[in-house]
Amino acid sequence: KHGRGKIEITFETRDDRAVLEVCDDGPGFAPDFDPIRASSAGLERVDSLSRYDLGGEARYQNRTSGGAQARVSFAPAP
Fold first, then answer.
1. φ/ψ (deg, to 5) at 53
2. Is residue 63 within 8 Å of 23, Cβ to Cβ?
3. Choosing a second label site near 56 at 20 to 30 A (CA), which of 8, 70, 73, 76?
């Protein structure tokens, strides 16, 4: 729904966090984008899984180079 163009997916550890990023080179999110108010079932599921199942967070933003970025970060299991 929000993504277009080339899609890049990365998964890495940064300090003590695991980070999954999904980026595209489409138009990005609208300036007033609120993932909770505007979310579809997919974004609600990403937020719920990130927060409650992984104990982490999901963030959505526009990239400075254009396009959108969705990032899920959480502490990996010991």
1. -85, -35
2. yes
3. 8
